[in-house]
Amino acid sequence: MKAIVKTLLRITRNQIKNLLKVLLNKPVTLPSLGSMTLGLDDVVIAKSLLKNRKDWRSEHVVFEYEKMFAQWNGSNFAFAFMGGRVALSACLYALDLNEGDEVLLPGYTCIVVPNAIKYAGLKPVYVDIELDTYGLDAEKLEQKITPATKAIILHHLYGLVCRDYEEIISIAQKFNLKVIEDCAHSTGAEFKGKKVGNLGDLAFYSSEQSKIFNTIQGGIAVTNNAEMATKISEYYQQSNLPSDDLIYRQLNNVIFNYYKFADSSRWWKGDVAELFYGRRSIISTTKEEMLGIKPESYGQRMPAAIAKIGINQLPKIDQCNQHRRNTAKKWDEWCKNKGYNSPLVVEQSIPVYLRYPVLVKENMKKELSWAVDELKVAPGVWFITNVHPAQVLVEDCKNADEAVRRCINLPCLGVIDE
Ligand SMILES: *Cc1c(COP(=O)(O)O)cnc(C)c1O
Questions:
Q1: What is the distance in A from the centroid of ligand 1 to the CA of 21?
Q2: What are φ and ψ of residue 183, in 5° steps?
Q3: CATH number, domain 35-315, options 3.40.50.300, 3.40.50.450, 3.40.640.10, 3.40.50.1820
Q4: Strands 123-127 and 387-388: what pairing?
Q5: pLDDT one-digit tens code per residue, 198-235
Q6: Whose CA is nearest to atom 6 of ligand 1?
Q7: Which of 9, 94, 154, 342 has the fewest CB atoms found within 10 Å of its own CB?
């Protein structure tokens, strides 16, 4: 009861502020950090699923989603899970490594990435990044290879194809290491005519609500190697489907997120939708995960109810990514005028700009109101620590430390046409 009163008070306060802004002829909404790839069509699907629980678990819908993704991505095999992190766990499982083996990863990532390595009984070893695309620095990577090193996780952060992509793959071949590509930010990005995720041995993608496409929570693991696919499928068979309660919450969140982030009248509809659909929201990274503890329900695969949203989201990705690239041109122009470096677009690559990263002065990352005034957007601050958003000691990663202090990211969806 208390919680409802609190929500009502907050919403009332919010709406009084908004009404004042309308009266003063000031803008009432800012493009937000949340995903804007949800449309009314997704809302219709979610509402219909909420009425038909019998449709929540039919396997053929999930297979259809996996097949669609594989085809679109140019990959031979795809498996859908309840998160990019789970898809990563499946990839690590497929490598068939031994306890204590070392996995190299960027010292600028999300806590769930080293967590997946630890959950698999492996040892994360952080490597510094370069500051052109925030990817692994190939030279520094090679220095960290020991006889215990067995795999490398590279990433394409903010939707940028990483600068040392080909070099990292050839280092891996030279030392007989496996490569997993973290494509959580870069679904749809291309390099030499192929989607990213197809150069390494395995790759994973995320459809968490702040990523390129949105199923609230979700992830996909892909590979082009039949043996690896058999191993992923083994992990898949062992994994459970989420509870009805979690599916119910996910579907409610699809509706809530649409009205909160995407609808053109979201400044008031978002608050109304919160009353109906916003209860029991979904936390993407739990307190346990922040502490490196494996949640009991970790490791689930995707049910049909969520795959249906995925199937509807997939055909929208290319168009949304084109919108993101158009917005990036505007941020390029701004960088040029202000003397900031634009993120590097690697030759023969097509980035997707999940967010547009810029290195600014330290105090400008701490206090972002300048951007709201100057750019009319609220910048994001991924990453506020080396393993966002948890505090874990990451040594010997000077560039990553600098990015933590200075890198802000500008939204690329929902900025133009408003
Ligand atoms: C979001 C993210 C992940 C994990 O994806 P989830 O779907 O949230 O599990 C992994 N790596 C990076 C860089 C991410 O931003």
A1: 36
A2: -105, 25
A3: 3.40.640.10
A4: unpaired
A5: 999 999 999 999 999 999 999 999 999 999 999 999 99
A6: 84
A7: 9
